[in-house]
Amino acid sequence: MVNNTKAMTGTFFRNVHSWVFIENTTLRLSLMSFCLLGGGLIALAGMLQYYLQWRAGRGWRQHSRLLRLHRSLGLLVAITAVTFTGSGLYHLWQKQFLPSTASVPPMAVALNKLAVDWSRLSPALVQADLINIGDEYYFRVWAGGELQYRNAANGELLADGEAAHARAIAQAYMPVDAPLLAMRSVTTFAGEYGFVNKRLPVIALDYDNTEHLSVYVEPRSGALAAVVRDSDRREGMSFSVFHKWHFIDGLGRTVRDSISAFFAAAIALVFALGMSVYIRRVRRRLR
Question: What pTM was computed for the model?
Answer without folding.
Answer: 0.81
